[in-house]
């Protein structure tokens, strides 16, 4: 005798229908294990690169951006993580008269005491290191940057101002700085093996700005 299909009540049919909606649908997936050759097959990997000169231009522009009124008299610190090869190329730009010094943490550093040497180290064809700026006190705007080489049209209404001062990179023996007349070094510190597998270290630069009324 052929068994008759089970007869469900209206409530049971509703529960069965609802459970079918809730139950997730499972689809087969394919997992590919990429080898090293597959990872390097992207043609863009051969096109995109960052040369040492590009990186140094980035560092120089980063330093230039800190030359602001609020940073006067304080120690400005910037940290960069770079390949050891970049640091080797960077050291070649430091004049031979500066001796490498070591810290207890295992890092090495250079104390640059001449602002012209600092400029030689960081100047690139794309970006030049700014070692001085002129600021003026303009009505309703506070202190703003002022360029003597600009035309009257470019200056706008800032041809007349109440006071002005020179804002400069304070390196070496300073006799004109009104806020700090100490010997200030431009410090370059290198801590190797931050990422030892890929030979990346930490480059830190520290410096101060000074000012003089004119």
UniProtKB/TrEMBL annotation:
GO terms for cellular component: nucleus. InterPro entries: C2orf42. This is Uncharacterized protein. PANTHER family: C2ORF42 HOMOLOG, PUTATIVE TREBLE-CLEF ZINC-FINGER C2ORF42 FAMILY MEMBER.
């Amino acid at each position: 005798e052929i068994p008759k299909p089970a007869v469900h009540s209206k409530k049971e049919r509703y529960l069965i229908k609802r459970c079918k909606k809730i139950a997730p649908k499972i689809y087969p997936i394919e997992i590919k294990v990429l080898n090293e050759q597959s990872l390097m097959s992207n043609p863009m990997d051969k096109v995109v690169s960052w040369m040492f000169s590009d990186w140094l231009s980035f560092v120089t522009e980063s330093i230039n951006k800190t030359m602001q009124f609020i940073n006067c008299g304080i120690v400005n610190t910037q940290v960069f993580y770079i390949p050891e090869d970049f640091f080797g190329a960077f050291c070649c730009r430091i004049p031979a008269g500066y001796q490498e010094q070591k810290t207890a943490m295992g890092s090495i550093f250079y104390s640059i005491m001449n602002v012209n040497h600092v400029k030689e180290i960081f100047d690139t064809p794309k970006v030049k290191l700014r070692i001085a700026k002129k600021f003026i006190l303009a009505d309703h705007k506070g202190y703003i940057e002022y360029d003597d080489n600009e035309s009257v049209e470019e200056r706008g209404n800032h041809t007349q101002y109440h006071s002005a001062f020179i804002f400069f990179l304070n390196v070496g023996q300073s006799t004109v700085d009104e806020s700090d007349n100490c010997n200030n070094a431009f410090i370059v510190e290198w801590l190797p093996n931050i990422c030892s597998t890929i030979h990346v270290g930490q480059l830190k630069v520290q410096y101060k700005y000074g000012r003089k009324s004119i």
